[in-house]
Amino acid sequence: MNHATTDPTFYRTPADAAAAPAERLAYVVAFDRAAERPDALTVVDVDPRSQSYGRVVGWTEVPHLGDELHHFGWNACSSALKHEGHDMHDLARRYLLVPGLRSSRLYVFDTRPDPKQPRLVKTVDAAELATGAGYSRPHTLHCGPDGVFLTCLGGANGSDGPGGIALLDHGTFDVLRGWETDRGPQHLAYDAWWHLNQNTLVSSEWGTPSMIEDGLLPDLLLGHRYGHALHFWDLTTGEHRQRVDLGEQHQMVLELRPSHDPEATWGFAGVVVSTEDLSASVWRWYRDGASWAAEKVITIPAEPADPDALPPALRPFGAVPPLVTDIDLSVDDRFLYVSCWGTGELKQYDVTDPSTPRETGSVRLGGIVRRTPHPSAPDVPLSGGPQMVEISRDGRRVYLTNSLYGAWDDQFYPDGVGAWMAKLNTGPAGGMAVDTEFFPHGAEFRGRRVHQVRLEGGDASSDSYCYR
Predict the structure, then answer these.
(1) pLDDT in tens, 278-299
(2) Phi-psi region at 47: left, alpha or beta (left = phi > 0; alpha = psi -120 to 50)
């Protein structure tokens, strides 16, 4: 490989990534819940030395309505250093692939030549996704060994499954095929990640399109119909190898965060809610001999609340569930961040020993009952809560946005969820503090809600590394 032509943001090791120059821009998707205006890919200035720090400095709208842009990612990352079949002279962390969770369209944005003004260069429509891979409702994507892996919640044309993974061409982004060759018992889908050096892909479960598009459905929740298992696959062949059930009471196994150390064999999965007591949890998966196992390592209890202060869906319980909807692991594998969207809290844990996390920090913003304001606007109660969380490569900055999914926003924050983004600064030994100079919100996002964040040059949740 000629490293002179390799994208400098393809870092060989996690330590190289952490030592690289800091991000200056953040890409944030913004969507119109009413589907009356186009969704947009926005660019936020995150350089403290800039006069436009904390402001939206770029805005590119999509040409359709009703997409609900949600999760998105880069076309390539550090794992490309070990993938076969790449033309490294042309491959770069250049394109952002942005799916519409409701429309099943996929938009491709070119961030060059002007990173502040991404250009829409390709659209993959729902029919192509359905015909080429048999899937709909694209959710999460990662650059992988055989192409871009795109997880999808639904079967062709929005049907209720099975959901799974569509494989896209690395260069053209055309839909190649469905990735699975033998899915075994897997039916529900959500996230997928991997241990490259273990030839293992891990996937998680949420629900089918009809189970999620109108909010959290109590009958399905209490009937334990949402996902509650992890699946382990042969990464090369696409064959299902093992299902690990976390227990039917642990409903909605969402975000997966494998260790960044390429030789490690563990990772974390977040569980939204337990039907036993409304608690949320984080589980560690790990290799146990020739197979895989999982154990609960964090439990976060519900918080008692006056029923009159709760939305209708929660009044019978008299409590606010934490609703863990995102987790993120620092590149050095030391700190795990856990978003409690219901209670309005971001928790930080030292996971130096991943089997025994130790809480080292907490920040409150928003929350169903608390509505904790941002320090820069202490008189303005915040709706929503820490939801999508992204960490800089060096672990010193944490970015948050507050919208979960349109239907869930409306259900748990019926008086409006608003739109805001926050930044936290972290200490090398743990602890967090809100950056009072950084708070894009409200009109800054032109009436849209904001979801996932990606950082210039890569971030903690989008890269996998091949070397120590």
Answers:
(1) 999 999 999 999 999 999 999 9
(2) beta
